[in-house]
Amino acid sequence: MSILRSSGIDARAEITEFPALVQALLAGNYQVALLGWLGLVDPDRGMYNQFHSKGSQNWEKYNNPRVDALLDEGRQKSDPADRARTYRDVARIIASDLPYYVLTYQGYIVGINRRVQGFVPIPNGSFRSLWGTSVP
């Protein structure tokens, strides 16, 4: 907090259990919140709930009718290329509107020793495939 204080910002960090944090977010009882999402492989899961005006995790009360329409449209498409274009359009609008600020993106890097057999990296970072892994 000393970095913030040196910039003239009086801040106090509160660490809370997740259910209490969600209640505070839903009630709008916060000034700044630091959150992370894991396992987001499909763009709908990472966008609809956070950015649709009726999204269950739209805690910042973001409301853009064009984004709502595109998110609804994305849910109706089955062609991966069409879906990708739709969600890219949503991402461009969100990047311009900036309803909240993304501090970092955590990618997944997997290193495997040559002796390891049967491990298959999963795009969302899950280690479920360890069940089928062995080291002879």
Characterization of this structure:
The chain has 136 residues and is mostly helical. It has 3 domains: 1-34, no CATH class; 40-105, no CATH class; 107-136, no CATH class. Helices cover 40% and strands 0% of the residues. The chain has 5 helices and no strands. Helix 3 (43-51) packs antiparallel against helix 4 and helix 3 (43-51) packs parallel to helix 5 (80-97). The chain is extended. The chain starts with a helix and ends in a 39-residue tail after the last helix. 10% of the residues are buried. The mean pLDDT is 86.
Oligomer classification: single chain
Q: Tell me the series of helices and strands, N- to C-terminal.
A: HHHHH
What proportion of the residues is helical, as a percent range?
A: 25-40%
**Shape descriptor:** extended
N-end to C-end Cα span: 49 Å
Category by helix and strand content: mainly alpha
Which strand-content bin applies to the residues?
A: under 5%
Radius of gyration from CA coordinates? 19 Å
| Sheet with the most strands, sense and barrel status | none
Annotation, overall tally of beta strands: 0
Number of domains: 3
Determine the number of helices (DSSP H or I, runs of at least 4 residues).
5
The parts where pLDDT drops under 50 for at least 5 residues are: none
Mean pLDDT: 86
Short description:
Helix content is 40%, strand content 0%. By secondary structure, it is mainly α. It folds into three domains: 1-34, no CATH class; 40-105, no CATH class; 107-136, no CATH class.
Topology:
Blueprint: H1 2-6, H2 18-27, H3 43-51, H4 65-76, H5 80-97
Helix pairs in contact: 3-4, 3-5, 4-5
